[in-house]
Amino acid sequence: MRRNDVALIDTVGNKKILKEFIVFKDLMRIILFVVIFMVLLQACKNSGEYAKVTHDPLLYSKTVKKLNDIVLENNFPPMIAARNYAYANIAAYEVIAAGDKSYPSLAGQIHGLTTIPKPVAPNKVDFPFAALLSFCKVGNAVTFPEGSMDVYVNELKKKAKDAGMPSDIFEGSVSYASLVADSIMSWSKKDNYAKIRSSSKFTVTNEDGRWIPTPPMYAQAVEPHWMEVRTLVLDSCSQFKPVRPPKYDPKNISSTFYNAMMLVKKAVDSLTPEQKHMADFWDDNSFKLNVNGHVMYATKKFSPGGHWMNIVGIIAANKKSDFNTTVSAYAQTSIALFDAFISCWDEKFRSNYIRPETAINKYVDPEWQPYIQTPPFPEYTSGHAVISAAAAEVMTHYFGDNINYTDTSELEFGIPSRSFESVRAAANEAGMSRVFGGIHFKHSCEVGRDMGIKVGELVLQRLKMKDLKKGFLAKN
């Protein structure tokens, strides 16, 4: 082969190699660009995109609802349910208070809570995410069976990771949530709840005018020692001790008692569809025993406190409240519910007052039945009236007085929604619904409402949940 031919081949080969090199180089540039783009995209995502998920106030409401469902499934009595909500929401509140200086800690403001641990590295904590986890850990501890919220907690963690939360912030949030939850649980164990688990049962006497078990369950009195549980804000369980109920005088047609008894009977005997709807809507019987011949079965609904937790979520969403405001509203409302139950139970087992059903059956009509099932504890005062009024005072403070809203809480139980012009109007209806249900005297609902208002006002007066100098939570 001639030298010129060899040179030609070399030149062609070199050009081919050079061309392939250029293509390879361009490919590497593209790959590098893609890698850099993905890194920048992830960095952008990590810089705060996950907050759109973890800082969503609707996610907090969904988390409270999850605990509400567990409480319902496991048939917690209403006052124990209120304890569950209070401690879990307080844990969440303490987390956001650690991350937002405009929210003062409740340490030193509620009985027995002295200190809450602070985060070692605040910049490594996503406080809303930690608040969710802290709520769940306390919720897990105060309910049963153990670990009821574990699956949901894993879902929350997956949401955070999928949304791009950096591993150091994820770990820091999980760690701080656990620290606060442990602190709240340690404090909660000193509230006498464990002690009264072994207290004596309530003794039913044959004294006329006193409470006795009612059909169809004829159950023992529920939590007769609840007034011994440590209050959160009230100075004592009897701080707002109401006036004495009317004298039991069922045979005297001129007596206050007789007229109150007949008012209940006549109301139930002539219920309108609207009044039936009110009674059903606010029934909130966590365990109703249905009897059909020889067949007996139970149906469950939210407890009264659980119903009001739902209402907080509905109105917070309507008002587009931010995450911290939503948590604070839940926490303070649940504190009011907690103390309201203690105040009410103190009076119930002091007066030990007879239920309308018992009196009407004995002196008017032995076959008469209330429209809804009478719960197993004394009549005076109405628990619905007390706790609803207390909750309404706190919620009015947060969200305003004239707020039209529709309560959809009972749809899952097949009960149509009801609309209200304010939470106070809803609370008034909740109390009076017990007369239409046939389980309370009207004066019990009226006095109970006044008790609840006093509890709610005291909770608002004593608890500073936000620095007012920096603007209140809800100005609407």
H/E element order: HHHHHHHHHHEEHHHHEEHH
Radius of gyration: 30 Å
The coarse overall form would be elongated
Count of discrete alpha- or pi-helical segments spanning 4 or more residues: 16
Biggest sheet strand line-up: 1-2
Task: Kindly report the average pLDDT value.
Answer: 90
Q: Strand share of the residues? A: under 5%
DSSP strand count: 4
Report the uncertain regions: 5-9, 468-476
Distance linking N and C termini? 96 Å
Sheet bearing the most strands, described?
A: 2 strands, antiparallel
Coarse structural class: mainly alpha
* Helix content, binned percent: 55-70%
Structure description:
By secondary structure, this protein is mainly alpha-helical. It has 16 helices and four strands. A two-stranded antiparallel ribbon has the order 1-2. A two-stranded antiparallel sheet has the order 3-4. Strand 1 (288-292) and strand 2 form a beta hairpin. Helix 4 runs parallel beside helix 11. The longest helix has 47 residues, at 3-49. The N and C termini lie far apart (96 Å). The model is unreliable at 5-9 and 468-476 (pLDDT under 50).
